[in-house]
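Workshop exercise sheet. Pairs work together: one partner reads the sequence aloud, the other fills in the structure field after running the prediction. Swap roles for the next sheet.
Pair: D.N. / O.F.
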Amino acid sequence: MKRRMFLQMSAALPFAGSAFAASPETFEVTRTEAEWRAMLTDAEYRVMRGEGTERAGSSPLNHEKRAGTFICRGCELPLYSSETKYDSGTGWPSFFRSLPDAVATKPDNSFFSTRTEVHCRRCGSHLGHIFDDGPRPTGKRHCLNGVSLIFVPA
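Structure field:
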């Protein structure tokens, strides 16, 4: 009997990690799933709340060249200045720096590699990923989903 109990508990161990994981990050702006679904399109919800990715080349913001600010679609926090936007050739809006205290990051271990996921620090909406192949002065490429952003002209 003891051996059977030990084997059952051992078999369950790989699945127990999630029960003991740290609680999800909390944000200043919070909404229920129903509230998020009511305010976002299906595509916006899939990217911003489900950490999905829009199709490359599909965002009109990829071609936005005017002076202004890119804000979070989820909470309207200013995230990126147009002064830091550049054409990375990837098909997604790209920036080499965020505005101060605008974004937060976490490791993303999906797709059999580790990447740096970037999200709005105020509402937690997924924005995209940060890579180390950007231009000077930072060397970073904030590769973002246009559906997560709203452009506000200067």
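Discussion prompt: The beta strands are 68-72, 78-81, 85-86, 94-95, 103-108, 115-120, 126-131, 141-144, 149-153. What would you look at next?
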